[in-house]
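Appendix B, Record 12. Input sequence as logged:
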Amino acid sequence: MSASPPRRAAGRLAVTPSLAPRDLARPRPPAMAWQARIITLFPEAFPGILGLSLTGRALKEGRWGLETIDLRPFGIGKHRNVDDTPAGGGAGMVLRADVLDRAIDTAQRGAPEDRKDWPLVYLSPRGRPFTQAMARDWSRAKGVTMLCGRFEGVDQRVLDHHRVAEVSLGDFVLTGGELAAQAMIDATVRLLPDVLGNAASTEEESFSAGLLEHPQYTKPAEWNGLGIPPVLLSGNHAEIDRWRQEQAEAITRARRPDLWAAWTDGKPN
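Logged structural output:
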């Protein structure tokens, strides 16, 4: 039996700005390929770095699809306002629930309701930390919808109503969610079939086995008086594997005691 052909998509689509939200019946990429849908005030920020190198080539080949939903056309009034002052006072502005509700409904058209099959996430510094395990879960889904925040955040009611999961790139604050979205999509897309071309690349890198990756070396054999560890040139693959494992454990123990504790707790006796 011949192998099934790779999943295809139409590549990048975008919802262009207009004075009213776009028709919900607008064309979408074929549903077979993994999709990323981004709700943002800056659709021109995409694909950004995702359009380069391996992720960009995979996008052009239709191995995954990218769609941006411009939040501005869903705004209120002549100026299409998307935000307002915080209830109870305070600095900054908050994205409105009614505006976001229409944008989310548009973005989710045709997506599975089961959040395991299609996560709906808001990129927020107070969210659950994004991890390699989360990227792998997303890569096994059919797609993901991301809400890129701006200003002081979004109205909590729309997050509760749509069961939006909050996800954080790290313990720091960005001016918006677009950079975080690109980082998370990159981490996910590279796990899709045939994107990297070598499945072993994703199996041996940091976090895949719960540890940070071992050091890497390449030619020249000596540089600035520094040589490559002899074991890596020995041709003894069992010894090489043992050395790499020891190095991964030592680096993880020194740099990430949290990962080391989790790994040792889950290690078979």
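The chain is about 30% helix and 15% strand.
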